[in-house]
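Fold these two proteins, one after the other.
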Amino acid sequence: MTKRINFINPFGSASYDEIILKTLSHYASEGTALDVTHLENCPADIDFFYSKHMIEQALYEAIMVSQEAGYDAVIVGCLYDPGVRVARELVDVPVIGPLEASFQMAAYYGHSTMVLTDHRKAVPYIYDQARLNGQGNTVRGVDAIDWFVKDMIEDRQAVANDVVRLSKEAAQRFGAETVIMGCTIIAAIYQEYLMEGGVPSDVPIINPNLMALKMAEGLADLHRKGGYSIARQGFYMQPTGHFKDEFETARRTWNASKPPFRR
């Protein structure tokens, strides 16, 4: 039976869909139907926090609609893991954050790791996420190649060159054995570079898109067979009774009242 996975690019733009599908679909297991989608009616860029929170509001609806449409798992395609924890309150299918998945998979690649993210504003955020995910000293550091997403998609070769050079330099500086690509688009650009015959980094690179896909496939299988469910008695408790009515009213009202987002 086909597993349907929705990889949602959390940007109000279709600019990144093609490269994600190109570099990720090859790794999908037989029987996985992978869709790559993006958000509508929200900012195109997630680099700054105000826009990030607007994007998260659009994400919640897209994730609920994905479950209603029959998807078996959802991947939120950004290393901020935007809205991932809130979304798990909303749906029963697995919701995967690429950074969380990469942290959990990193031990299979080496004894220690670091994150090479896109720009310097993301560095303290990723440090916070490492603490939130209980990484301790396993994550030796976070550094940035200093590209914004909207720029890197226009100069992919330069981004790939920076990844090869800076991943080795940063791993040596922090004493890390592996490097997590700290941006889904950087990871896709580097993967495209490898697919086109580029020379890989000297350091093992953990591609968060691949980690998220494999975790989504595995948890989707477990969910179907009764081996995965979300604990509802604590952090991910869902609203019931009056609170459920309030939630459904809020969802209808929000969707009916959203003004068109003009750029």
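Now the second one:
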Amino acid sequence: MKFRSQNRVIYAYVAIIVIQGCTSVFAASTDVTDIPFEHLIQTDIITASRIGQQISNAPSAVSTVTAEDIRKFGYRTLADIIGSMRGLYTTNDRTYTYMGGRGFGRTGDYAGRVMLLIDGYQANDNLYNAAYLGNDGLLDAELIDRVEYVSGPGGVTYGNGAFYGIINVITKKGSDINGVQTALDAGSFGSQKERVTYGKTLANGLNILLSASRFASDGQTHYYPEFDSPATNNGRAENLDDERNRRFFGKLIFDKWTLIGAFVSRRKSDPTAQFGADFNVSPNWIQDSNGFIDLKYDADFNAQHKASYRTYYGQYQYRSRAVFTGEFYSEKNMGRWWGAEAKFTNTSIANHKLLYGVEYRNDYQQDFYLPDASLEHSQYLISGYTQDEYQWLRNVRLNMGARYDYGGKNATFVSPRVAAIYSATEETDVKVSYASAFRRPNVYEKYYSDPSFLLPNRNLRKETVDATELVIESRPDSQTKIQNSFFYYTTQNLISASEVGGPGIIQYGNWDKAITRGADIELDHFWKSGMHLKTSYAWQLVEDGNGQWMVNSPRHLFKSNFSMPLLSNQLYLGVELQSFGKRLSEQRNDIAGYSLVNVSLSSTHLIPHVNVSATVRNLFDRDYAIAASGFNAQETILQDGRNIWLQMVYQWP
């Protein structure tokens, strides 16, 4: 389906929404005070600069998804949430889900270039620098309070890897649960999930949240024409799409202390036979085990001087089993790290809000255990940063900062940022910013060695980005927010994989540069009746140093989410439209664009103590595919057709 034909779908959808918005049948429902939009505008965010500030004061463009959005649209994973956000997209190759932002989203690029935080803790692992977004992710969607997306480099406050943007997931507190929840889910492809969550504020002031869940799915039978021969089951991969996971999460808040811990173990079979494995031969699975503990103490010396101290430990293990030309192959990789940070804020100087801090991270284990060799590595990073938010004039704020990272020749970098925020009126802010960031090559890209598909490159250098961005934010009334951004990025020494030495043999190298230019717009509007519309459109063009369009980088992304109350607010209907323009495969062939419609119906008050929801994704059962990675024999990977997910949550009285 070409993008031109998608426009008719978009126009019809928007027209329906406008008609619904003008209908007065719901006018007597809820009062505007029940709608949290003004509160949302005034909500403090910490992602943009680590200083709590209103969204309108942040130096970058900010988008959020709340717990209410997650419930109303039936999002099950962080990938679902991210896929709904301005300018972002995800692709799934039947083993992992990859995130694309600012036009970069090559399938198989584990590192990505948007940093993932969980309550401020950097959740990317230290082997592949990967962010886990699907059933391999650390969190159940029901435990998320909100997700913040700040576009643009965040090198000043987050350093290595905060390249094209930052996503911070803020989890719920025990008081948000206020009791015991048990949840039972079931869905297409033989999928089921169970969850038990306890949350409470105890008499001694301890705020506690504990949760455990289990997920299982039988998966589907997949057909791949590249393997269509009698010797390979005529291209049918059977009983090789199953998935299992276990999750545990805990959050304790007492006085000024916060302790958070999470763990997930996920096993997924691979029906695509990546890396040249024997097709339709079992076993062929991967297993990811990921966890962390994060301890934070917030100190208030006085009204003008505050501090925050954090220490953390994380680990990640990768295991795989597969058969290659009849021989059994296994792999086990292990990463461990710890770190500490101290940051301080000072508002004692008139019109200045100062932030400064130091951070140390020790990746003391980065090991690959292969059948023929063991590769053991470690690295560290020492950082110092400072930032000043200066109220220069009554309606002009300046945000200036820099960070110095030191960790050897591939991790020594100064990340500056300069931003100006001009409040043209009480309703309109104009933000102009320039920032730089870097990402050093991860150990997989640089050192991993398997002569059958991946060669090491010990000369691999860090990649850097220089970004200029203009943001115009308007709040024409208390129920509406419109945000526009225009951006231009120059990426130097882009790290990317390409074939060397023969078909199927790849190596990571530094490309000359890549240029990103684009613009996006987001509209967020609440009606007094309780209806809510969030719509965004992004145009982004990414070209390499030769002027060639980058792989798996759609130029057009349209998102629209509409929800409305039914039956006197006992039910909520959520309708989501996502349209993506065409993109290129690894073979530089066109992959057609597509449009998807998802529908969710949820209830919170229809049955006492019970919340129920039903979600249908890909309502019209569209056939669509994404670009496969260089690890696959396939050029494209067909995605899921229509699928259904049912959930029942019981809140114990």
